[in-house]
Structure formats: C-alpha cells, structure tokens
Amino acid sequence: MIYYVIKVVISTTLIVAISEVSKKSSLIGGILASVPLVSVLGMIWLYIDTQSAEKVAQFSTSVFWLVIPSLSLFIVLPLLLKMRMNFFIALPISLVVMIIFYYLMIFILGKVGIKL
Description:
- The chain is mainly α.
- It contains five helices and no strands.
- It has helices at residues 2-24, 26-34, 37-50, 53-82, 87-111.
- Helix 1 packs antiparallel against helix 2 (26-34).
C-alpha cells in the first residue's frame, strides 16, 4: 500500500510542479512538460512491478509510435484557441481529434505489420 502512495505522491508532485512553473514561464513549463516524465515514470513503475525489461521495451515502443498522433493535440488546440474558441470547448475537440489520430495510427501500423 505504501508503494502506491509513493507512486501517487511522486507522480502528482511532478504534475503540480510543472503547472506551477508554467505560470511563471511557459517556456520552462513547456520544456519540463515535453520531457516524457510520465513515460519515464511509467517505465520505472512497470519495471519495479514486473522486473521485465521486455515489458518495458514493448511499452517504450508503443509510446514511440503513439507520440506521433498525440502531437495533433498540440496543433489543434492552439489553432482553436487562436480562433477565440472557449478553452473548455477547444480542449475536448482537440482530444477527440487526437483520439481519431490514435485510431488511425494503430490501424496504419497494423496494416504494415507493426503490432502494439
């Protein structure tokens, strides 16, 4: 149980820290957020939980391929916001677009023989 509390505290602290830094500097916040902290933490927790380098390698490969469609969020959201769309409308639209791109990527990868 204490292990899960440690995981939650570390993960939450990083997210809050990035949010707070971003208030002062969007550049530094962006740099911190662009570092794949969630992925790295996920790999650490996965390895500790399973002791399997193979599972970490599979996870890392999936993250690699799925970063590409996730970038659509960072294209669509600023475009919608620049069009003066309300943030709470623009964000879900951007997330839906990103999900569509995830499905497209998985479909395309499956067609070329890459299984995630």
